[in-house]
Amino acid sequence: MALVCLSDFEAFAKKYLPKITWDYFAAGADDCTTRDENILAYKRICFRPRMLRNVSVVDIRTNILGSEISFPVGIAPTGFHQLAWPDGEKSTARAARAMNTCYIASTYSTCTLEEISVAAPGGLRWFQLYIHRNRAASQQLVQRAEALGFQGLVLTADLPYTGKRRDDVRNGFRLPPHMKVKNLEGAFEVCKMSPLDPSVTWNDIYWLRSLTRMPIIIKGILTREDAELAVRHGVQGIIVSNHGGRQLDEGPATIDALVEVVEAVRGRAEVYVDGGIRKGSDVLKALALGAKCVFIGRPALWGLAYKGEEGLQEVLRILQDEFRLAMALAGCASVSEIGQHLVQFSKL
Amino acid sequence: MALVCLSDFEAFAKKYLPKITWDYFAAGADDCTTRDENILAYKRICFRPRMLRNVSVVDIRTNILGSEISFPVGIAPTGFHQLAWPDGEKSTARAARAMNTCYIASTYSTCTLEEISVAAPGGLRWFQLYIHRNRAASQQLVQRAEALGFQGLVLTADLPYTGKRRDDVRNGFRLPPHMKVKNLEGAFEVCKMSPLDPSVTWNDIYWLRSLTRMPIIIKGILTREDAELAVRHGVQGIIVSNHGGRQLDEGPATIDALVEVVEAVRGRAEVYVDGGIRKGSDVLKALALGAKCVFIGRPALWGLAYKGEEGLQEVLRILQDEFRLAMALAGCASVSEIGQHLVQFSKL
Amino acid sequence: MALVCLSDFEAFAKKYLPKITWDYFAAGADDCTTRDENILAYKRICFRPRMLRNVSVVDIRTNILGSEISFPVGIAPTGFHQLAWPDGEKSTARAARAMNTCYIASTYSTCTLEEISVAAPGGLRWFQLYIHRNRAASQQLVQRAEALGFQGLVLTADLPYTGKRRDDVRNGFRLPPHMKVKNLEGAFEVCKMSPLDPSVTWNDIYWLRSLTRMPIIIKGILTREDAELAVRHGVQGIIVSNHGGRQLDEGPATIDALVEVVEAVRGRAEVYVDGGIRKGSDVLKALALGAKCVFIGRPALWGLAYKGEEGLQEVLRILQDEFRLAMALAGCASVSEIGQHLVQFSKL
Amino acid sequence: MALVCLSDFEAFAKKYLPKITWDYFAAGADDCTTRDENILAYKRICFRPRMLRNVSVVDIRTNILGSEISFPVGIAPTGFHQLAWPDGEKSTARAARAMNTCYIASTYSTCTLEEISVAAPGGLRWFQLYIHRNRAASQQLVQRAEALGFQGLVLTADLPYTGKRRDDVRNGFRLPPHMKVKNLEGAFEVCKMSPLDPSVTWNDIYWLRSLTRMPIIIKGILTREDAELAVRHGVQGIIVSNHGGRQLDEGPATIDALVEVVEAVRGRAEVYVDGGIRKGSDVLKALALGAKCVFIGRPALWGLAYKGEEGLQEVLRILQDEFRLAMALAGCASVSEIGQHLVQFSKL
Asked: Which residues of C carry a binding-site annotation for FMN?
């Protein structure tokens, strides 16, 4: 059967991935309310489409932190891509480059940053960092990424501890023995405790700043208060995210939080959003509400699970086509014409 | 089993039409949210019925652009009626004339305008136009329609490109070889690309104006801003429509959009609405909110699928009876007594 | 199995009545939205119960138009009780008298007013009237009722024509040949058309006034405008009713309409409500929102269907016990302590 | 299968308890609307989590009426623990002490207060009182509790009569013959009527005050008016409660009522809440809205039903871990940092 929309890829992945892997990718914290709200919240936003606007050419390109991408959808950082496809993050990197968009490689990759770089030279990539108790290991990672040409450092702020994902507890989820969190080999040995450092505060942004010239993007912001703090601490970008609903359950849907973050930031940093993007029109809604770009997490994994690099390209191509069509049907010929006038929150 | 309401016709059509045809008629864009919202939105409108008003005679006649019709329900333009019934649009034209109402014939008819005219001479008909890249072909069509006695030109504004209807993609929907979009034969040959012109703008209203003396009705308007533009460009009528939810998914339900369009138009043009009409009381709601008349799309196809001309007449007769009864039970003896005081948006 | 609440009686009736009878009693107009909303609307009203108020004695008696009843629940007028139980309205009258409450006998009874009177002498009864085209027949009925000791005349205002109840159409519902609308025998012969007069207006209240000294109660009012008119035309009582959702579908739930009617009436007439009462706490809500008394329709028929007079008494006794308990748990020792402070409309 | 969250314990209890017992524990009044709303209302509250706040140490301890407890979750008073586990309330007392939290022992315990005290000497316990018609029996109970070292007297205000729990009526629920309401043996003999006194009023608080030096906590308050009265009558604590939805159905969810009670009390007494707590994040929400501590009812019974003392400890430990994690993920390092800024009522 042809896969015509992202839900088709989801159904494929659910059917063909081992249950323990599917559960891990699909997991949300506790009751999975926030995971599901990320999607439902998009449904409560209603377009106000405009007619007769000459959409014979629709330009969907945009820029993020100065780099042009073919359309405003990048790959969010998710871990353990080898669970989805043998080549793991190497395939992800190749697909992102082929589609000319940005890939945020996770600290918890099953390939090294070096392998990723070699797999798709010249691709636009950012590196996602968890700060570890072993600060030297984190410093080394940041500097490796910069040396390899990564063009942004994404600090994840919402994981001082791992959220409670019931199925993972029930399944006893762990990485199979033949896979490794390769970027951290060695680092783990000096730190027997949970490697993540829950004492990280805003001051650590200054420490990261001192380590690298890469722009710093903070991921996991959900309130105007934290958006203001992020700007004051000099970040270049904010990813409005609730970690796909995998951390604190029953926080806001990201598209709802986006509105207050954009308002607080007032253009002083770029604002992105992830979570719940399933159609090209979701991308249009996010941009209408002020996002510069969106990032997809689980849909990228479904693409990998389907056919590796090729499958992920198909996912991206579908989103691209749907986004272009949504723009045309809403009366926008370029991303600069997208604005808040295009949407309203529905009565439901 | 007797068919006592429009849903019964829907069930019949779903059961007896080939799946690919049913899917094509039923299709909505993407998740079909707007298609379904068109119906649900009527449920959120609540009557305020008035009692003891002498409804021994209930006059349901009205006028649209100067022509009297037997009740405020016409036939919306939909394509490919031969998929529903062998005689196709000829049956539609006959049923509309028999019931003394208006039929908007689609560019994508499977009968020619000439065949339609011959089938039901003297019937009130408007012609629905898609503007093609081949402007000469469009001009010719408009002038053929006028010459044949069509009394209105309906420009569809919401289809610069076709919406993404997943089932049609999955089914590989296309017209069977023995059917033709007859009005366009010849025109296609000079234009190998998709024949519709996505560069159409408001200025093309002036061009159409220069081609014909028929009143111009614009179909597909959903916002006050576009309603204002339509009036300024001199249209005589506006059909509030989202193409049955087949174009941009997650736009407003038409009955919700009607309110703001009516408000913006302030009587400077007639306003109609299509989408989601399933009962006579829906017609009453639309009129209470300012529509001069409603148009039905899918229910007309179900009627055709049931018994051709006769089936469509039955559908119209049911709506007529239900509309008359709803008027009486709400305390209205003529359409001029219908007003906004009759309805309120419910808390739900 | 013991029947412990009204829903249990409903389930019994659904199981044991002939389908065509069940369908007739259960029927709502069109999509049955209003029928169901009558019940759902009660769910949106939330108590604000008060504690420690000495409820060792709870007095649930009240008065309607000067007559004391044992608790504020009467029997609404419904037709054809012989469909539920062989003795028909005679059983209803006996049960109402036994429980010391008011029974509104319908024009469409399957027993004569005389039979009803003889069955339960001394019971508090009102007579429900449909005004017929044959005004003499209506006049005669009113005067028969008064002569038999009926103490109120209830004019039904919401049935100029019968609502469209799809199942009744499908079933071809009609009274079985061995049952008769006995009150109207003779009257029908002089009037071959539908016997009800859709030309009735507010002025006919004056005509009724001239025929009888019984207080006049108007049934079927749903708006403040009509409530004001009713008061101005001198009625003594108003029953807020949508005919159990059997007439105009998608009007307001009666408990919602009650609020605006009570506000408009400002104590100048007594206000009652029917529709959707299924628990003693529903009665408490209706009284808190200003109703003097409620009337039950379908639940009375379920009681009859279960065990005739005895079954209806059981239904009334359950409501009585539940109402008394709800009062106690909300902190009210008598109906005079029930007020709007006891409820709020919930956020849902 | 591992039990990883409270719902797992619920499923276990439902599976292994006798139906009549399960029904009794699960029962809500009437339609069980309030019972279920207690849970749903938590879903309508949305976190505003804060990031990068140094949560390397999270201190979850708090104090209630001057006693430190290990985390803000105590055991609400529920009856008949021997139905869940042979050792009954003795197990409950041991588990509460082991987890260093407060246990409110019910008048309707199946163990005596003396047995409870001996089972877990030194544990923090409050005694829940129903005032009986036999006031001497109540006085004696209060004084026994104080002598045994109970540190609080909880007066239940919402049970002048028992709510109507349909399943209990259907099942003919009663305590099996080998179990006894041991605290009341003797007292029952002098009072053949229902032993509870529905004439209790606010003045009885003064009477209780005269009997004991224990602080008085009133349980069952749902409105600002009653909260004000409670403070004026000198109580030290208020438990916002609707008796788990077992008394008046369709009153407010407790978490919704908490907001107005806290506002009315303005710090003049401690405010607690029970009903609907199923996750650690629910505890965090209750504290954010002003509760000093929450109490769990049914989940404690599920824990007992699973493995007695050990099972209840597991339930408490899960809540403790979840609460600590929720605090960390919301950015709170101690309960003093929890405040209203952490939550908002969602649009749904």
From this structure: 77-79, 106, 128, 130, 156, 219, 241, 274-278, 297-298
